[in-house]
Specification:
The protein has 282 residues and is α/β, with parallel strands linked by helices. It has helices spanning 8-20, 42-47, 65-77, 96-103, 105-113, 133-141, 183-191, 202-216, 220-225, 233-243, 255-267, and strands at residues 26-32, 52-58, 82-84, 121-126, 159-163, 167-171. The chain folds into 2 domains: 8-171, Rossmann fold (3-Layer(aba) Sandwich); 201-267, Conserved Hypothetical Protein Ylqf, Chain: A, domain 2, CATH 1.10.1580. It has 11 helices and 6 strands. Helix 10 (233-243) crosses helix 11 (255-267).
């Protein structure tokens, strides 16, 4: 599957970020904890050079707990401050304001020496579509100031939001990059819902999901659905469709519904808390 999704508003959004990056002190990048490498937009590294950086592994409540700790250590070893969060849970981000100040400590100390004691820190919130930026801002502000949705592309323009008089947060639209060099990145982004489902071949995508589960979590399909994992991928989807009683008139498997449902099972945690990126060595 060769997946690419780069609608026109993303070009405009990237240009807006380029224009505003000079105004901010720190770039806060949200990644999806289920696929931290796949959800890292390489353009953001270029945009954020010479800025303080903070990585937030969002949706950590949906990711494999064992992998969560390894990913946090991976980014910290790269010299990037990294924190696991669930942006829907305010308790998980209650100390983020302290972390932001720690990341910007050098800036704060410089300001103090210049006699500036209470300067508002300006933060750019960025990430790919549907990674939870607006939900994070709303939880941090404890009110609904940013528009949210469970589909990619809800935020279309920039907005500044003040938090406790200490931070100005710039909420930016989710942007991908024009071409995925590795087709597996596009597949993983599609699986976690960061690519518009309307452009996808859902049946082919479900085959890719089954292959990932067989390789990374052997036995999970058997334990959840009593499915023979030694069968080929097409037969596994057929068996899943039968097990879920998704049949057309005459008893024929409704493969389209089966494909959509197994992807929804993954996204909705019915298969369990799973991570789909492999952790590289530093």
């Amino acid at each position: 599957m060769n997946i690419n999704w780069y609608p026109g508003h993303m070009t405009k959004a990237r240009r807006m970020m380029e224009e505003n990056i000079k105004l901010v002190d720190v770039v806060i990048e949200l990644l999806d904890a289920r696929a931290p490498l796949s959800t890292r937009n390489p353009d953001i590294d270029d945009l954020a050079k010479n800025k303080f950086r903070l990585i937030l592994l969002n949706k950590s409540d949906m990711a494999d707990p064992k992998d969560n700790e390894k990913w946090e250590a991976y980014f910290n070893e790269l010299g990037l401050r990294c924190v696991l969060i669930d942006s829907r849970n305010r308790d998980s981000i209650k100390n983020i304001d302290k972390v932001i100040k720690e990341v910007c400590k050098e800036k704060i100390e410089r300001d103090k020496k210049r006699g500036i004691l209470k300067r508002t820190l300006k933060c750019m919130i960025c990430g790919i579509p549907n990674v939870g930026k607006s939900t994070f801002i709303n939880s941090l502000c404890k009110k609904g100031v940013a528009k949210t949705g469970n589909k990619p592309g809800v935020t279309k323009g920039k907005q500044w939001v003040n938090v406790k008089g200490e931070f100005d947060l710039l909420d930016t639209p989710g942007i991908l990059w024009p071409k995925f060099e590795d087709e597996n990145i596009g597949i993983r982004l599609a699986l976690i819902g960061s690519v518009n489902d309307d452009i996808l071949d859902i049946t082919e995508l479900s085959y890719k999901l089954i292959d990932i589960l067989k390789n990374k979590y052997p036995g999970v399909l058997n334990s959840k659905y009593d499915i023979n994992e030694d069968a080929n991928t097409i037969d596994i989807l057929n068996e899943y469709t039968v097990k879920r009683n998704l049949l057309k008139k005459g008893g024929e498997c409704d493969i389209d519904r089966g494909a959509a449902l197994i992807i929804d099972d993954f996204r909705s945690l019915r298969i369990g808390r799973l991570s789909i990126d492999d952790i590289p060595s530093v």
